[in-house]
Specification:
The complex is a heterodimer of chains A (114) and B (110). With 114 residues, chain A is mainly beta. Chain A is built from no helices and 11 strands. Classes of the chains: A mainly beta (114), B mainly beta (110).
Chain lengths: 114, 110
Amino acid sequence: SQQGEEDPQALSIQEGENATMNCSYKTSINNLQWYRQNSGRGLVHLILIRSNEREKHSGRLRVTLDTSKKSSSLLITASRAADTASYFCATDHSGSSNTGKLIFGQGTTLQVKP
Amino acid sequence: DGGITQSPKYLFRKEGQNVTLSCEQNLNHDAMYWYRQDPGQGLRLIYYSQIVNDFQKGDIAEGYSVSREKKESFPLTVTSAQKNPTAFYLCASSRWEEQFFGPGTRLTVL
């Protein structure tokens, strides 16, 4: 299976602290994306990083990608109670066929305590 | 108001019945996807379609069927051949790499 693995599975922090979650994958990618899911809802796209990029920022989010280690990390700085959700990495392994198919990890559940 | 909608929000099915989940988008996206999510798990791809009148099996297509007769619509039928259909079903669409998700349908087999 190409399914990515995320760690930790669960993370509990205080408001204002930083949260870091990691994603690993097995085969080469076109891009890696991070999504957020509030309980019982659909997913919302957060950020995309391409295979030739090493770091991207979006607001309080910072994503890094290390293709030699086949891993990525998502950092949420100055966390808020509203950041409480599950976070999923998703990888596009479609190569030149560009099907857009994504392989999702099992997710990290983040709880931010006020 | 652009977006992707799924209906119904909750669906109950008796064993042996086929049920159809609706997915509609007005984002003018070519590609659409169906995923299944089990409790505490990530998403697994059931079927996807990159263009009208064409679709491909995903990783767990057995017991499911789809159609793509219109760009806006990608209904999923859960057949009686699907042995464990109780799950949360998510539909998504995309133009480029980013996928936009609907709110999901929770299917329960009684």
